[in-house]
Amino acid sequence: TISTYKMFETDDKIAVAGSGGKDSLSLLHILTDIEKNFPQTSVYAITVDEGIKGYRDEALKYAAKNCQELGIKHEIVSFKEMYKITLDELADIIRSKEKELSPCSYCGVLRRRALNTAARQIGANKLATAHNLDDETQTILLNIVHGDTIRIARVKPVLDSEHPKLIQRVKPFCEVPEKEIALYAYLKKIEFQSIPCPYAPTALRNDLRKMLNTMEEKHAGTKFAIFRSIERIRPALETAAERERLRDCKLCGEPTSGEVCKPCQMLQKLHIL
Ligand code: SF4
Ligand code: ZN
Predict the structure, then answer these.
(1) What's this model's pTM, rounded to 2 decimal places?
(2) Residues lying with their CB under 5 A of ligand 2, a single-atom ion
(3) From start to end of the chain, where are the E strands?
């Protein structure tokens, strides 16, 4: 996958988004291993501490332990220091004020921003995330269900760097089924966190996951076929989807397609900004 999509150059400074789960820690082990053959490449790990009591604190320990074993520099960036609020506190506000969005919707947007900022601060030019084939096919179906064709075109193995402040994101595991990553982690005896997040998606994504797993069991290769189909039609989707020019958010200066970026909109909505 890495060579098919030309994900890396030999002198890349790669930040790996490491949550402490099996996927991100396996990716960290694999990229550290590959990096040994490329002395000009460097690998760092970034963990976002969303502030989820009893969950993220444990994951942080696994992330730190693995980084120590691998001799990798580990950056931790927290919601509390970036946004002045933890996800637990945010979830309380959502429960009292907000009906439509789940904590996960906020978490995803705010974590992406935190990862990009942290990667930029350490001087990385690539940000590797451990999204696997299962994640990717679920996202494709989610975007189809939401009728969001522009996002189908945009979410891909190597994301376009559309703004100088956006670190290019790459997904080396996008063609690897989750089960194979679990097997790798098991065989390599990688210690990782296995308890699920208390806010783990309960809605649509979960239903799609179950549906895809049932399909895969009955018709092996379904997930890969969905992934490949989108790969084939993406050029047409990209042409059809009008490119939105990114500019600087008028509140925080980060890249956005509108006047105010999504994280600022969300924080404003909850009266945190
Ligand atoms: Fe954040 Fe949701 Fe993932 Fe928990 S399950 S870490 S709330 S995105
Ligand atoms: Zn902003």
Answers:
(1) 0.91
(2) 249, 251-252, 261, 264
(3) 13-17, 42-49, 73-78, 126-128, 168-170, 247-248, 255-256
